[in-house]
Amino acid sequence: MTENKNKLNDAKNVKKLVLTCDLGGSQTKAIAQVYPDGVPIVLAMSPEVADVGKGSIERLKQQNKCYKSNTAWVGWSEEYYVLGELAKSMFAGTAALRDLKYQYAKPKIMGMLWLAWSKLDLKSTSEVFLQLLLPPGEINDGKQLAIELAQVLKKGVETPTGKLKGKLCNFDVSSEGSGIMAYRRRGLKNEYFQKNIGMLMLGYRNASFYFSVQGSPGKSETSDLGMSWMVRQFVERTAVGLSRDDSRLISALIAANEGNFQAFRPLSRKTTELEKQADLKLFEQVLPVVRDEYCRGLLRWMRNMPYLNEILICGGTAEFVKQELTEHFENEGIPIVWNGNVSIPEKLHTLGLGDRVADVWTSHISHIKMLDQNLGYDRQGRRLVPTSNNHQEPTYHGTPPEEVWIKKGFMPMHKGVI
Prior knowledge:
Elements: H1 2-13, E1 15-23, E2 28-35, E3 41-45, E4 49-52, H2 54-62, E5 71-76, E6 79-84, H3 85-91, H4 105-119, E7 125-134, H5 142-155, E8 157-159, E9 162-175, H6 178-188, E10 196-202, E11 207-213, E12 216-223, H7 227-238, H8 248-257, H9 273-301, E13 310-314, H10 316-320, H11 322-331, E14 336-338, H12 358-375
Parallel strand pairs: 1-7, 7-9, 10-13, 13-14
Antiparallel strand pairs: 1-2, 2-3, 4-6, 5-6, 8-9, 10-11, 11-12
Helix pairs in contact: 6-12, 7-9
């Protein structure tokens, strides 16, 4: 009798962890929440990953490394990975931009789960509800990934704070940008079903274009025309020893884009002032040419798009070429809706990411709505994130219909993935 009572109490104490994850090329971003009424939090980690041996992990343990929010290590079945800044500084880890996101999805997701467990102070065993954002061309990889994730979580994952276990109750794979499109649909209401809407997602790794025809999903395409294309071209054209893996390069490019080419000075490897000035002059000459070539390539790629009533433009790279995109679509007579008019709750502005979390945040909203429907939970108009009176955020009444815009790979609740 006592044993059964203890099991019942243990079941009640098991928390439901919801994680929506975006494996971005410049940063891995996630929204984590204890379901149903926990307040969501933003998680982020630099994108580097390195596969290592067990001996390397033992050294990290002895040095008491990895107790930071921007790095982690995880291991299972004699496979070990270091993630984030430590992967780059100690193990020559890279962002693996030329690989499919699927290839390193397991260690990156496990790293973000460990971070969520740590930040939310959860016990080692939880029920886990995952959503992963992938480019359209990688959606079909989700089914096999779900099986592998479930097996790893069931056996347990080694982490800096001990072995973590969980039951993967559901794994949903959604196209990048589907959350922003769903958010826009809610804002337009019935008008959404009368419009042809395009969405251009410009990330670090790639560029994706989606098309909705009066509410029905149309074409979707992905190219390698992300910020990494410009970085690679800039480094190759200048040929002065810059590294495209130098994390300072992106911030220097952004500053230079706003007219501050002195931001490149710390990146010059020259020793004399005259030589440094020569580098800065070269950078100032090359950047406008690379920007122009990038924009031309991007617009050439999109040239065959169908007629649009409006276009949503999202992603951190979009800000870098905002002027060119604005001029192009104004000339075409197509209204631009920047970031889908997404409003990020003030309490989620904790890591300085701004609109860069728009996609993962809106996808998390759709994720929670989907769980509410499948688990029969009624929010009764309560907000996901408590807000001040003068800041408007969406409220949730009842259990709205499931978001289905270009969602593929959804595995129904209760049937699960295990």
